[in-house]
Structures are given as structure tokens and as C-alpha cells.
Design brief:
single chain; about 60 residues; alpha+beta; two-stranded antiparallel ribbon; 2 helices; 2 strands
Length: about 60
């Protein structure tokens, strides 16, 4: 898949779905991405680390 070089739309800055920390742009590679109920949710390093067992158990974030 190639990106359109003439596309002017910039992605919305990512924010942690748990604590609200802003990434200031696209999510860093160290953040965790979860696809729940048809939407992407990003979690910062601290929130992902604190809930890693629930994430690996594939529990929805509403359970943790």
C-alpha cells in the first residue's frame, strides 16, 4: 500500500485512552494499540505497563 504524496489530511494526534496523555502527533512505536468495538484505542507506556496482563488476556479496556 502506497501513501498518496498529495494527501493534505494529517492524522489526528494520538492520546492515551486511559489517562489522556497526548502523544503530540502519531503514537510512538512504544505505545500499545487496541482495536475495540470498531475503534482504535492507544495506551501510553505507563498505562500499558500497568495493565499488561489484561491486555495480553485480550480483555476490553473497560474491564481494567
Amino acid at each position: 500500500m502506497q501513501l498518496d504524496p498529495e494527501a493534505t489530511e494529517t492524522p489526528e494526534p494520538a492520546a492515551c485512552a486511559r489517562c489522556g496523555t497526548s502523544a503530540g502527533g502519531p503514537p510512538p512505536p512504544t505505545w500499545t494499540c487496541s482495536f475495540e468495538n470498531g475503534r482504535r484505542h492507544y495506551f501510553c507506556d505507563d498505562c500499558a505497563r500497568a495493565n499488561i496482563r489484561s491486555i495480553e488476556g485480550r480483555l476490553d479496556s473497560s474491564w481494567w
